[in-house]
Amino acid sequence: MLAYEFMRTAFLAAFLAALVCGPVGWFLVLRGQSFASHALSHVGFAGAAAALLLGQPALLGLGLGAVGGGVAIGMAGDRLVGRDVTIGLVLSVAMGIGALCLHFLTHSASSATALLFGDILGIGPSMLVWLGALSVACLLGLAIVARPLLFASLQPEQAEARGVNLRLLDILFLVIVAVATAQCAQITGVLLVFTLMIAPAAASLRMGFAPLQGMGIATLLALLEGWLGLVLAWYTNCPTTFWIAILGGSVFTTATLFCRLRGR
């Protein structure tokens, strides 16, 4: 399996994505913003489809669309809490715009499938370099805001009283989430970002680890999903994203059962 360059590249891409999905997803679940990765991936899909229509790289459009959506959600703040209908309509409109762009994108039908469901086996060396750069940028940004972000996530009133700008912090974090979503979408596609970014983090938090341990466990679980998904896809001839989704659900279910048994 590892004798093929495209498989080695796929394993490296999954490794880079897991490095980011673990800690970013951990903060998302902790802050109750799990919907953000799903929402930003849908908004980014419209940007990616528009970029392909204009002859630009899909990653560029996906990143710009997701970052723009992250800034908008961060600026809206609490005004979006509980407005499921509004959020659902915005996501539907974004997917509709993406579908319109793909309708006119007649020269590359495979691009639609790659955007929606990912194409980890089609990642080339140049894309791998970009994924590495995005990983470094996300981790550096998260390292800068991690302490105030953890404080604001656990004790928002006290953090605000001590001078922490919650709105600015939320915007900065959602920009990091947007970049991580653009990276993760190269592996799972925009429809299955949730499985790689949220499932490992939710399982880690469910088991009650401390912050640094929890982020480390979430990263390891995301890496396990990506690498084991590639191995299973190789031997079963099923899509990698299918196995990543199945493994994500299995990891969270196992963690939930473990916690219930431990509680008893």
UniProtKB/TrEMBL annotation:
Main localization of the protein described in the UniProt heading: membrane
Protein name stated in the entry: High-affinity zinc uptake system membrane protein ZnuB
Regions crossing the membrane: 49-73, 85-107, 127-152, 164-181, 187-205, 217-236, 242-261
Biological function: Involved in the high-affinity zinc uptake transport system.
Family: Belongs to the ABC-3 integral membrane protein family.
Compartment list: Cell membrane
Lineage summary: Bacteria, Pseudomonadati, Pseudomonadota, Alphaproteobacteria, Acetobacterales
InterPro entries per the UniProt record, alphabetical: ABC_BtuC-like (IPR037294), ABC_TroCD (IPR001626)
Pfam families per UniProt: ABC-3
PANTHER family to which the protein is assigned, alphabetical: ABC-TRANSPORTER METAL-BINDING PROTEIN, HIGH-AFFINITY ZINC UPTAKE SYSTEM MEMBRANE PROTEIN ZNUB
Topological relation to the membrane, as annotated: Multi-pass membrane protein
Keywords, comma-separated and alphabetical: Cell membrane, Ion transport, Membrane, Transmembrane, Transmembrane helix, Transport, Zinc, Zinc transport
GO CC terms: ATP-binding cassette (ABC) transporter complex
GO biological process: response to zinc ion; transmembrane transport; zinc ion transport
